[in-house]
Design brief:
Helix content is 13%, strand content 32%. It is α+β, with helices and mostly antiparallel strands.
Length: 100
């Protein structure tokens, strides 16, 4: 997934890789706001902190607390998968506040 920081310091889901872990979970939607990753608050986190929190070894699980555009809070347990967005050697997107 690709994230973009909003005006309040939260990251929102900008896009998802087709068939990627976030899309496959069925729990993540475009414009969902990331509140926590594995119990760690993500408001005002740096792009590097968010990337470290979301990325991890293939097959491990990450729990992301999200707020939908309609205000509903939901928890998504996602099994990490290898894909271009999960490659730790790949640089982060150059635009300010964006994370892949």
């Amino acid at each position: 997934a690709t994230f973009k920081r909003d005006a309040e310091g939260y990251y929102t889901v900008k896009k998802m890789a087709p068939g990627g872990a976030a899309e496959a979970s069925g729990a993540v939607a475009i414009e969902d706001r990331v509140l926590e990753v594995d119990g760690n608050a993500m408001q005002r986190a740096t792009a590097a902190q968010l990337a470290r929190a979301v990325r991890g070894p293939e097959g491990t699980w990450v729990t992301i607390l999200l707020r939908s555009k309609d205000g509903t809070v939901k928890s998504a347990a996602i099994r990490r998968a290898r894909g271009p967005e999960a490659d730790p050697s790949r640089p982060l997107e150059a635009s300010p506040g964006a994370v892949r």
